[in-house]
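Table S2 (text version). Query chain:
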Amino acid sequence: MKRLFLIGALIPCCVAFPQERDYRDELTARFPFYQTARTVFAPVYPALARQLVQDYGISKGVAVDLGGADGSLAIELAKITDLKIYSVDIDPAAVRLCHMIVDRNQLTGRVLAVEADAADLPLRDGLADLVVSRNSLFQWPDLMAGLREAYRILKPGGVAYMGGGFSRLLEPGELRRLIEWSEDKLRRKPDSMLAMPKDLAARLSAEGMTQVRIIEGPSRFDWWLEMRKPEADAGPELSAPNAANAPGQ
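Corresponding structure-token output:
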């Protein structure tokens, strides 16, 4: 009788939680980019993760993905490195999706979804060895404010790779398919072309961020900003007012 009582007592607790599939469906309806990320762009994230590790050799420490959406890139980075990764997005549905997908990939504690504005990050100065952002900074209302924040949270000696497009490590067939998809989208939506401001490097240099360069990728849809913080630069002049309460490593 005691055993039956305990089982019965547990049932209401279990039933009280929503079914994961229903909850995921609700979130994806609120964040429709999820379907595109999981289908059209699915090959991009593992290729870009490999490229970042290959180019910068950063496999330990802390990374931050600004505009990380459902965590697609952060999760792929976590799979091939020992990085602790903050996936930051302003959309609460994207952040909740990221939590679910991280748990499903058994990366809880390695990838942390954070709801925040790229222009006002709740992260401390000098936290990140690596800052990444794919196809997000073009949508920021204040691009320079977001880039200042990216620079602020970089460790001295850290690097940021931010922009839009694909990866040079994609298989040729996949790259061709993605370019064709993007060309078709551009024909349907001529204002969908993501372009890096031509004077961006000069604007950053004027603010003291001098180790920057613009990198063009394997297609006209690839524009990337590489930004490094010098070893001797702790960047105190870029401290944010919320840094005192920011997460550490």
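Notes on Table S2: The chain is about 40% helix and 20% strand. The chain has one domain: 41-230.
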